[in-house]
Amino acid sequence: PEAAAMKMLRAGLALLAWPIYLLSFLGIWEPFCRKVFFPFFLEKLSRVHDKKSKKHKQELFRNLPDFRGPSGELRLLEIGTGSGSNFQFYPPGCKVTCTDINPNFQESLSRNMKKNQHLRYEQFLVAAGEDLRQVPSGSVDAVVCTLVLCSVHSVSSTLREVLRVLRPGGAFYFLEHVAAEHSSWTYFWQQVCFPTWKLIFAGCCLTRELWKNLEEAKFSELKIEHISVAMPWMPIEPHIVGYGVK
What we know:
Layout: H1 2-16, H2 18-25, H3 29-61, E1 75-79, E2 95-100, H4 106-115, E3 120-126, E4 140-146, H5 155-165, E5 166-177, H6 185-200, H7 210-216, E6 221-228, E7 238-245
Parallel strand pairs: 1-2, 1-4, 2-3, 4-5
Antiparallel strand pairs: 5-7, 6-7
Helix pairs in contact: 1-6
């Protein structure tokens, strides 16, 4: 009965979103989503999410200065920078390289760069998390990734690239929404929403158990905490937060 209910609810959701399915079939939705809808939506979502996760982020990034390189500088690479909502949490003088697969965040990104002039912005690379070939191996002290691993094509390839670009002793910081407990209502709704959500929100997967990928990656030390970030009307409440050391 649960599987049948899920199929019915999925079909109902697809029916509500039929114009988007049609646009997707015609090849119109994806470019529109990448250029217009997703940057617009993500900026709005970031504002809500930042308020709800601010304490977690302050706590997460508090020890960033501990990972400064031998020169005393902190070279930080952010994967999926988006509108730059994490800049406010980085320590003064930090050298930041921004990467994103989607170059359409310029407006909100420029605003956040102006607001956060305590940082030194090195470069902006249009690159996927799985392919950071423009970044030399062992060249950064810290890599940051928030709300990004849900939509990369391959989590394991992205984590391999993270470990490649980090210097030995460098750290990878993450805050990501993940699959809920399998027996919970949240997980049931995550599964109901999954196909339509993934289509509308540029490939975002609701049911990834990212802590497993992190545990399988070759970090010498890994701190993971399961937390809850209440997002109204959204099936993305369960999160993980923490960092891994190369």
